[in-house]
């Protein structure tokens, strides 16, 4: 991944596969012997003794250096979940400091957001975009494959550009075993929106694999910028899609 030491992972929505993509990036970093830490600044929607996103990351990637800075039980955006629980929200400026510190001692720190890019973490309206800007970290956008993804992805990319954020790439979080017309057409349109080939495509079901199989899927599904061997041109050919012009 060149000299990138912090990668912020966001999605076009909740449930698009940020955790699975985060685990895949972490798995490849671990495989090539890089020290890697994974951070979830705010985990919502899980109780104290329940597994959170980082447990999935550990299970799938084998990376055990993980940090959850705050947890709120209600399945809400972090700011709302803190409000409902009557506890202070997570501070993204403190989160930034801790992440910088981790970046000093790890080759790569992967930070998974909550929901999408502009979800609020506190009552002042701090978002993952602010965190990425503070960290000067590139942002990886996880998108759906299906109908509706083009608008969500365009909005996310436009919001990033307006805030001066660097795009690390767009990854499709869950590619169906039998893609329909919309999914197949969306590949070229997602590439047009981001003005670059897809940074990766993970197959549907990847999150349920064991660690070894998951590592294989990560290698095949993430592009070189993320340490894998995914070839977007070959992928387009497989689905007989028009080349990126
Ligand atoms: N490629 C995949 N293979 C298998 N399951 C997947 C895949 N992508 C996503 N899922 C499943 O879809 C659900 C949502 O995925 P995931 O938890 O990665 O989303 P998320 O974007 O991290 O959501 P959140 O906003 O809650 O963090 C999970 O149950 C996950 O197991
Ligand atoms: Mg997640």
TrEMBL record:
Pathway membership, UniProt: Cofactor biosynthesis; biotin biosynthesis; biotin from 7,8-diaminononanoate: step 1/2
| Residues that coordinate or bind Mg(2+) | 19, 55, 112
Q: Which UniProt keywords apply?
A: ATP-binding, Biotin biosynthesis, Cytoplasm, Ligase, Magnesium, Metal-binding, Nucleotide-binding
GO CC list: cytosol
Q: Where in the cell is it found?
A: Cytoplasm
Q: Which Gene3D superfamilies match?
A: P-loop containing nucleotide triphosphate hydrolases
Any single biological process term in GO: biotin biosynthetic process
Principal subcellular localization: cytoplasm
Q: Which residues form the active site?
A: 40
> In the record, what terms sit under GO molecular function?
ATP binding; dethiobiotin synthase activity; magnesium ion binding
The record ties this protein, via HAMAP family, to: BioD
Question: What job does this protein perform?
Answer: Catalyzes a mechanistically unusual reaction, the ATP-dependent insertion of CO2 between the N7 and N8 nitrogen atoms of 7,8-diaminopelargonic acid (DAPA, also called 7,8-diammoniononanoate) to form a ureido ring.
Family affiliation: Belongs to the dethiobiotin synthetase family.
Name the UniProt record assigns to this protein = ATP-dependent dethiobiotin synthetase BioD
Organism field: Planobispora rosea
């Amino acid at each position: 991944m060149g000299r990138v030491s912090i990668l912020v992972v966001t999605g076009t929505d909740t449930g698009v596969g940020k955790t699975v993509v985060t685990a895949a990036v972490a798995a490849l970093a671990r495989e090539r012997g890089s020290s890697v830490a994974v951070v979830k600044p705010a985990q919502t929607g899980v109780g104290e003794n329940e597994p959170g996103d980082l447990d999935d990351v550990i299970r799938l990637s084998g990376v055990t250096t993980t940090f959850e800075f705050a947890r709120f039980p209600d399945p809400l955006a972090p700011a709302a979940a803190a409000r409902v629980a009557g506890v202070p929200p997570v501070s993204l400026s403190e989160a930034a400091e801790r992440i910088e510190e981790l970046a000093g001692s790890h080759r790569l720190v992967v930070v998974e957001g909550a929901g999408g890019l502009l979800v609020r973490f506190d009552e002042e309206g701090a978002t993952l975009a602010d965190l990425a800007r503070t960290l000067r970290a590139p942002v990886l956008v996880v998108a759906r494959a299906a109908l509706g993804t083009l608008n969500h992805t365009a909005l996310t990319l436009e919001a990033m550009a307006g805030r001066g954020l660097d795009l690390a790439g767009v990854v499709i979080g869950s590619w169906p075993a039998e893609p329909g017309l919309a999914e197949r057409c969306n590949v070229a349109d997602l590439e047009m929106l981001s003005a670059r080939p897809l940074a990766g495509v993970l197959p549907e079901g990847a999150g349920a694999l064991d660690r070894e199989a998951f590592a294989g899927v990560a290698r095949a599904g993430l592009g070189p910028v993320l340490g894998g061997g995914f070839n977007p041109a070959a992928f387009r050919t497989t689905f007989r899609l028009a080349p990126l012009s």
